[in-house]
Amino acid sequence: MKLSELVRVKQAIIPQDIVGGKISAYYSMSGIGRVLAVLTTGVIAEAKKATIQLMQAKDANGTGAKPLGSAVEKVAGAGGEEIFLTAEAKATDLDLANGYGYVAVQVSSDNATAVNGAAVLIFGDLAFRG
Fold first, then answer.
1. pLDDT for the residue 130
2. Can you point out the beta strands (E) in 45-109?
């Protein structure tokens, strides 16, 4: 079996300036056991950071959106650097009791000037592999 048959990959945020923050569309977690968000950036200035945060909502419109787990941050080292970050959650981490079943990824940087970033969502532990 191919890896591409075991996971679903969604381009969440196309390469663009992430200073000030960007959020992807919300995707249903129905039939999905886990989600991994991946962020990669251009060079971020020394002592500035990139942040990735999974978000959860009640529907694809983002109703009731709130964080899913903790934000993951990385501060650029001496001379600045490109940053690669991941955030992961299980379907059981969702606030299922209150109707939350959709996820998105939010990314940002506090860089003083524009910095490009892109993110993907990888859905795994698929209940239906058709």
1. 38
2. 49-57, 66-67, 72-75, 81-90, 102-109
